[in-house]
Amino acid sequence: MDLLLYVRLIGHTFGTLIQLFWMVVILGYRRQRNFERVFFFLCLAFFLFYGGSLLALNSQIYYPKPPPGVQGFAIAIISAGLCLAPALLLHLHMEYAETRGLLQVKAWKRGVLAFFYLAGLHLAFHRIPLLLQEGRFDFIAPGNSLGQGFAMVLVISLAWCAGWERRFATTAPDKAQRYFHWTLMFFFVAALASAGILHLAPFAISLRTSEVFATVFSLMPIVPFTVLIDLVYRRNFLQIGRQKNLVYAVSATFLALLYLSLVRRVGIWLEPLLPPEASASILLFVLVVFIEPLQRVLGRSLRETAQLEMDRVQRLMAEFQQEARQGNVFRFARFIERRIKEQFELREVRLVLVDEENSGHAGRKTTEPRAALAFDPHEFAIVREGKSEGVLHAEPHGANISGDTAAALEFLCEQLLGALDLCRLIEEKLRLERELAERERLALVGQMAASISHNLKNPLGSMKTILQVQLENPELPDSIRGETKMVLDEIGRLSTKLNQLLQFSRPAVRGRDGSGSCDAAAVVEEVTGVLSHEAERRGLQLQIEISWANAKVAISAEALNDIVSNLVVNALEAAPRGGQVSAAVAREDGNFCLLVEDDGPGIPLALKEKILQPFFTTKSQGTGLGLAIVARRVAEFGGKVDWESPVKEGHGTRFKVTLPVETKKE
Asked: What was the pLDDT predicted at 642?
């Protein structure tokens, strides 16, 4: 048998298997991206070419005259693969350019690809029926049978791909990818020259030279597909390298298939000397010699991989311990997500921590349904003594997470508990320190308020009394009367601010049994009735809605009066002239609910976290204690304050106070 025939036989067998390898990897990877889809169909086109060529070669070896049906089928699949290969090759480069941000004009891409795909389909639908009808086909150089049109399309596609590879090489992110793209560029230049000489050369070459040239040209695509395996495995090119379990499994399967094919071939070659069964048994038994060295190599490789992943986890845990000392669980959870995603090159990572019963913080909550199965390869539980502390959701770029990555994530989840505990303890310590500082500050405010009350309240009262007596004098000039009224107003304003300061500095008055109780609806009606005159003076509408009469709330009347009056006064001051303020009483989930809403400009986003802080105000003459008093009174009686701004059409503010109702005692 001719040596060139052996080379083609082995080359087409390997080419068929390498295309099958990539198709299986892409199907197992299942990444929803156009690049992988085009890559799959390109591999399918080359698989049709190599598979059809292998079928034709085998039919020539085994039959004196190949059956027409086999020949026709080989011609059809070889021609179909070759007709679509130039368009798919160019499409793959354009998709990769788009993922790298090098392709800006999408319409231009669609137009070029439409031309090449239409040219390929035109060749396929016109040339294949003619070739099947004639029955003549050049299996060594199939491009010659497809005509000059195919040769022109192929040459243009190869030239364009070479240009793209040069651009990829100059913008490659690392040395390995740059080397790969430069190699591919020279490969496409060599393929372009070979295609031109083989199909478009104006000079004649000998038959033997033409066969050698055509064989080398047909086997050239095997080289980049093989080099790509190494780049994917070592450099995680296209994020496929993280699927090591998939790459290992497919590689082992195809190596086994390749060896079985070799066993069969050798058995046929040695058939004049040995029966095929004997030669097959000998070749299969030879594998036993390689088991122990293979075991050593695989064991060392697995240990290195495991050590690499454990080192990565240890480095991550050192970063996590450092970040945990900041004492913010929410920010710590986001930091964990970001670093795991970067380190393990995953598509998405979400850490969901279970809310603790007595803790005001937790990780990000989720409303997504849990997996129906007892296990999920994308979820890693964080468990303490059989109790779930959270779940780490990890989404790879493909379908599955590699085995070594899954093991590393499981180990990482076991180590996360210590870092989370440290973060919670430091956050609790910081919270207690802030509360202690706040209490000390409030104690100082109380002392200051008592001192101010003692030193200013009595003199202010005396001044107010004297001025009121003077106003009753009918002989007082009008100019002095106006100034006296102005002074009285200022004294009233100072008294109001002094009372507000005293109100904030002392705790609410509760009943003898340690709790308070009042008719909430009556208190709200009383406060709104008093403030209705202020609303009229400002040109505002003050509306009240009582949907729960005789509501007995577990809070003292004085404390509820403070809450309602401060909220309504704030709303009146915020609403524009001609605006509207509403106060509503309702029942919600068995609790008392007070809603105060205005149609003012709303609360700026930057101030939403500060409005409940004492002494923070945006008003020129405010003390910044109104909402702080509301928050303190509500907290003293186990309630909750919520607010929403803007409410509608970009303006308005709504405060919602929830308080427990009075429980009946037996």
From this structure: 86
pLDDT at 62: 78
Q: How far apart are the first and last CA of the chain?
A: 107
List, in order, residues 6 or more apart from 316 with CB less than 8 Å away: 339, 340, 343, 412
Query: From the CB of residue 568, how many other CB atoms can be counted at a distance below 10 Å?
Result: 26
Q: Taking phi first (over 0 means left), then psi (-120 to 50 degrees means alpha), and beta for anything else, what does residue 384 get?
A: beta
> Beta strand pairing status for 348-353 and 387-395?
antiparallel
Q: How far is it, in rounded angstroms, from Cα 213 to Cα 218?
A: 9
**Yes or no: domain 3-241 corresponds to CATH 3.40.605.10:** no
**pLDDT for 398:** 61
Summarize the confidence of residues 531-555 as an average pLDDT: 83
The per-residue pLDDT of the chain, averaged, comes to 79
Structure tokens at 364: 């990000």
What mean pLDDT is predicted for residues 152-171?
91
Is the distance from CB of 562 to CB of 635 less than 8 angstroms? Answer: no
Poorest-pLDDT segment among 61-70, 93-102, 436-445: 436-445
Q: Which long-range contacts (CB under 8 A, 24 or more apart) does 110-115 make?
A: 113/87
Cβ-contact 514, 555 below 8 angstroms: no
Q: Do domains 313-428 and 436-505 have the same CATH topology?
A: no
Tell me which of 273-282, 386-395, 592-601 is least confident: 273-282
For residue 217, give the DSSP letter.
H
Q: Structurally, what CATH architecture does the domain formed by 518-659 represent? A: 2-Layer Sandwich (3.30)
Domain boundaries, the chain: 3-241, 313-428, 436-505, 518-659
Fold of 436-505: Helix Hairpins (1.10.287)
CATH number for the domain whose boundaries are 313-428:
3.30.450.40
Residue from 540, 654, 541 nearest 603 by CA: 654
